[in-house]
Structure formats: C-alpha cells, structure tokens
Amino acid sequence: MKVRTLFGVATAAGAFIMTGMPAQAQTVIDGPKVSWNLSTWGTKRAFTAGMEYVGAQLAERTGGKFTIKIHYGEALSKARENFDGIKLGAFQAAQYCNFYHPGKNPVSMVLTLPFLPLGDLEVSMHVREAVAQHPDHVKDMDNWNAMSYMSALLPQYEFMGRGKPPANLEDWKGLRVRAGGGLGTAMQALGSVLTTVPAPEVYTGIERGTMDAASFPYTYSHESYKLHEISDWFTSNMSPGTTECATVFNKDAYAKLPDQYKKLLEDLKAPAYEVQIKAYHDIDAVNLPMFRKRLKEVVYTDAQLDELRKIAAKPVWDQWVAENKDKFDAQGVLDLVLSVAEKAARK
C-alpha cells in the first residue's frame, strides 16, 4: 500500500508509523563507530519524540555503529547556552528555542510572530523547513558553527495561569506572563508584563507568584512542566502563535560523517516528523479532558479573537520587519513564511 509521508515520499519507516504494519527489514548500513551527544532540557516528552525516533533508528540501521545519546535536564548545558556548546564542539547536537536568545538566531524569530497561519502541523513543517534553508538563517547558524536538522514543530501556544481567569481581553492588563518573541509583543499590546524565563523555571515562578501565567505549546508542554498542578485556568482557543525550537548539528562533526550516515540522517527526517506530529496529537487526547476536569477553561468569542488579531497580528509583523530590515531580508523572510504556508495548505 502506498503511504504518503510529509515529504510526499513513501518509506518503510513511514509505512510502519502510518499503518501500524511492520516495515520491511532494512539492510544494516556499515560504517565507522560514531557516538554523538545531544544536549536538551526537561525530560523525555512529545517535544523530544522526533529526535528519540532518529536516535533509535540510527542505532538500529547501523548495527549500533552510529549513536546519538540524548542528555536531558540541561545535563550538558543550560538551555540558553546550547549554541555556545555547539560552537565550542562540546557536543555534536543540541536543541534550542529561538526566543531564549533572539540575538543568536534573529531570522528564525519570524516564526514567533503572532497569528501566522501555522495551526496545521504539516503546514508548519513545510514553513519551518523553508525558513531553515533561507540563506540569512543559514548565516545565523554559521555564526555558531551550526547547521539546522529538524524542527520540533511546536503546536500553537495557549496560556495557563493562577488567579482570576482572563475572561476578557482587558483582563490581561497588568498580568505577568511568560511569552517570547512576537507573541510577547502581542501580549504587551494587551498590557501584560513580560518575562522570558526558560521553561524549567516557570513552575517555580507561578508557584511563588512571581508570574501569573505562562504560554506553552498546547497541551503537551503545560503537562510536561506540571503547570496544571498549580494553575486555576487555561485558554483553549486563543491560538496566538508559536515559536521555533529545533535540533542543530555541529558543522564539523557532521562534515566528518561518511556519506552513508549523512544520507541516513536525511532519510529519517520524514518519518521522524510523522512521529513528532503523532506524539502531539496523542498527548492532546489525554491532556485536554484532564485539564477540563481540573481547571477553568477560558474560551474567547469570535469577536474577541478578531479584536485580538486587529491589535496584535499585522501591526506586530510590520514592526518586526521595520526593526530588522537593515539586518537581513526581513520582509523576504516573512513573505516566504506566508507563501509556503499558503501553498502547503492547498496540498
């Protein structure tokens, strides 16, 4: 049976994921012994599912000769310093989130702009791949001796918080919220006070009352960081935007790989994206009923959402272009996002 993958190619691994039927046995790829380390934060979760799949497949397909060990919990590096570790060659692979350090990856910050058409995860994948290949983004990565591999495809963000639920847009005024990039700019337009602490520090911030709410990819990240345990409410249809978190490789380490290992890494991307998307859908099916049972769900009307977009969509896009037009082709990058999203949505 022909199986359509995210890249439009049928693969044995993709067939297993999409149909549940065993894939055909793969020939073991021979090569030298290579052991890589990947630096990330948090624990094993939906966010890491794609790279966990890649790591497992690399070991299986090479008979254990090419391995990537994922180090969780900032064991190798602080989340904000993963680019520094890649540049130094302290590890061969790392995950990053762009709004932790916007100055290190300014081009990718386009993906934090609010209300971009990235609600569909497959559309989002095509857009993120296009941005990763844009020459200006490649230059950003070159500054850290890094090369993009694959996105974590973060879903649309929603908020979870403590105290009075923000039932009206006016209720956001004065709230201390964790929101980065263009989403942060959008929340500032509503009168919120921003903080951009790394994800592992959010629980403590809300618990101690130093912040009122946090935006995270819906719903997996809220549950991963246990925010539902200390929160009173969550939004479910705000969908204000997302951000870019991805995996990069050290360019020198990648260059040393034999061609057959490079090809295998590329071949694994399509099924890894399938795994990533499925992981998000599966965890939503578990988390959403649990959230609704424990917390107050905040649902905005169409009129409220229209007002929010009027305040925080194109005005924020235009502001981002104006602030970056002398640094790189900001308008071209934004146009690329919108055009690729439109084409992908028609497929």
Proportion of residues in extended strands:
5-15%
Shape: globular
User: What structural class do the secondary elements suggest?
Assistant: alpha/beta
Q: Within the CATH hierarchy, at the fold level, what is the topology of the largest domain? A: D-Maltodextrin-Binding Protein, domain 2
Tally of contiguous helical segments: 14
CATH level-4 homologous superfamily of the largest domain: Bacterial extracellular solute-binding protein, family 7
Q: Taking all residues together, what is the mean pLDDT?
A: 90
Query: What is the strand arrangement across the widest sheet?
Result: 7-6-8-5-9-11
Number-wise, the strands total 11
Number of domains: 2
Helix and strand pattern = HEHEHEHHEEEHEHEHEEHHHEHHH
CATH architecture of the largest domain: 3-Layer(aba) Sandwich
End-to-end C-alpha gap? 20 Å
The CATH C-level name of the largest domain is: Alpha Beta
Give a quick account of the main beta sheet: strands, pairing sense, barrel closure. 6 strands, mixed
Return Rg in Å: 20 Å
Unreliable residue runs: 1-24
Helix percent band: 40-55%
